[in-house]
Write a structure and sequence with these properties.
Blueprint lengths: L1 H40 E8 L2 E10 L2 H15 L3 H17 E9 L15 E6 L6 E2 L2 E4 L5 H7 L8 E8 H8 L8 E7 L2 E7 L1
Antiparallel strand pairs: 1-2, 2-3, 3-7, 4-5, 4-8, 6-7, 8-9
Amino acid sequence: MKQKITNYLWFTLICVLISSCATRQGDFSDRAIYERALKTNSVSQKAYDKFETKLIANATYKDLDFIEAQIKQKGDSLLYDSGQINSLTTSAKRDNIFFVNFFVSVFTPDDRYADFSKKKGLWRFYLKKGRDELIEAHSVRLVDNDRLAEYEALYPYISSWSTCYEVSFARSDLYNATKKRELFRPFSLVITGQIGQVELEYE
């Protein structure tokens, strides 16, 4: 009898350990998928004037594969239920029908040029696809300070001196320039202003 109890306890312990390892492996896999998507979809570039840095930019192309990986990562971290994940995914897919989206983190040491919004007019964002006409951004939205912590968790390249924007291009403008509504690699995101320019290439 004592032997049976011992065997049962060992069996239970082994099952718990296997379950625990499987959960940890799954969590790691979800993180790894997002980190791989982030690396694949992110590009950084700097603009110099002689030896002086004029502009530093990091940008992430938010295609559907990336967005779904990001939602899954957030869902795992914040314990979203399936309904919340499905709602976020549906909203992202709906937005993706009309827009090509990027997250952009930028820095310039000259405070006079530190506003990258369209309203200020100091900088412009363009999509460049081969020899087709440049496509200007439809909207450039500043990320609110109260949401920066969330973004910093998702985009580790953000620094304390960065300014962060959500940049969107209308698929109608993409179609007018390329005769296609889908954006296929290679393409570039161009950020240009009077004191510097960078071209972030997505191969």
